[in-house]
Amino acid sequence: MANTLYPESYYAASANAVPPRPALQDDVETDVCVIGAGYTGLSSALFLLENGFRVTVLEAAKVGFGASGRNGGQIVNSYSRDIDVIERSVGPKQAQLLGQMAFEGGRIIRERVAKYNIQCDLKDGGVFAALTAKQMGHLESQKRLWERFGHTQLELLDQRRIREVVACDQYVGGMLDMSGGHIHPLNLALGEAAAVESLGGTIYEQSPAVRIERGASPVVHTPQGKVRAKFIIVAGNAYLGNLVPELAAKSMPCGTQVITTEPLGDELAKALLPLDYCVEDCNYLLDYYRLTGDKRLIFGGGVVYGARDPANIEAIIRPKMLKAFPQLKDVKIDYAWTGNFLLTLSRLPQVGRLGDNIYYSQGCSGHGVTYTHLAGKVLAEALRGQAERFDAFADLPHYPFPGGQLLRTPFAALGAWYYGLRDKFGM
Question: Minimum mean pLDDT among 93-107, 122-136, 166-180: which range?
């Protein structure tokens, strides 16, 4: 059996205590069976329960086992491709709807944290840091673009201002988004799971969906039980495997690596990030970092296409951290881990329906924390018959990777090499 305990990470080591959840061992009936207890599944379940549906969630491992419990913990608005790219691809009407939704995920997270009293070290403020004048120009146009869609909590930072926010002399400027921010991602997932159960939802752990019997009343089979439902929501993302073959061809799991330092102490932590904002740079293959609640630095970056686990994560990420913060050269790394996210060729999420009653959302392409929370709301609306926002996502064009599953990894790695060169030479 695959390892279904949490991988060793800072998040798993500092997770809030939760009750053990049983594996499904009998036959149950429900309105909606959600496959996957990550953010997409938990967000869907919460919105459905708040609207009177009976919900059963099946999780192959533990709540937040996948990307939801291993990511950089940053609340970043919009999508992996911004609204102007979407507009060129689908036209102004659909782009208008998607643009209005681009900032909703972060609001949903804050509403959930407040409503259900979730302890997840929520902090406001996220910075996009520019390494070149060209990147700074991109941030200026991004600010205008986002403001066009009503998003106003933005401030451009010149070289002097960004130094007040982050003690790194690589940056020529940046943009501060006060509706961005950061969280302990696993504790957010665990808090959302507790909220699901407080509303009468059931979550089964160690209960992978092994087969979906499609039809008028679909049935999801697990190794020891089954769930008969009116609707199914498939929310496995990079950890779905081949359960739904139609979804596997158009996406590719990718690994990203994260390290966490030993506690830095108040003085050093405050020297690095005086206002406790999270930061990501503007490179295509970007670095991202932030402070934890107990004043460690979490630093992530790098992408492994095809989701192999690299042998030595610290060797990949530590040099990136020291390039940004040479003052950390003697600091010990306490945790290093990898996690998978799901990449699509367009880098836009794939949302849709199979037959009349199987709904899915996947492929956040590295922009998952906010998007998945929005996706849960949009999927719940569709099940209630309000499909306008669902259709705006479902109508986005998607393509299989050239050469199918065999060639998708080398193809994407080649693209990454090209963009890595562009980052390096400031092209």
Answer: 93-107
CATH superfamily, domain at 10-410 = FAD/NAD(P)-binding domain (3.50.50.60)
Output the pLDDT for position 337.
93
- Per the CB < 8 A criterion, the answer to whether 367 and 388 are in contact is no
Token pair 């009407």: residue: 93
User: What is the mean pLDDT of the segment spanning 179-197?
Assistant: 98
CA–CA separation, 338 and 303 (whole Å): 10
For the CA atoms of 341, 344, 350, 354, what is the dihedral angle to 10 degrees? -100
User: Which residue in the block uniquely carries the two structure tokens 């099940």?
Assistant: 383
User: CA 152 to CA 146: how far, in whole Å?
Assistant: 8
pLDDT given at position 1 = 35
- What's the chain's average pLDDT? 90
Task: Tell me how far apart the alpha carbons of residues 145 and 324 are, in angstroms, rounded to a whole number.
Answer: 29
Strand partners, 344: 251
Answer yes or no: are the C-beta atoms of 287 and 420 closer than 8 Å.
no
Give the max Cα distance, the chain. 62
For range 162-174, the mean pLDDT: 97
Domain segments of the chain as ranges: 10-410
Which residue type sits at 395?
D
DSSP result, 273-296: STT--EEEESSSS--EEEE-TTSP
How would you classify the pairing of strands 123-130 and 278-281?
parallel
Q: Looking at residues 354-371, what average pLDDT do you find? A: 89
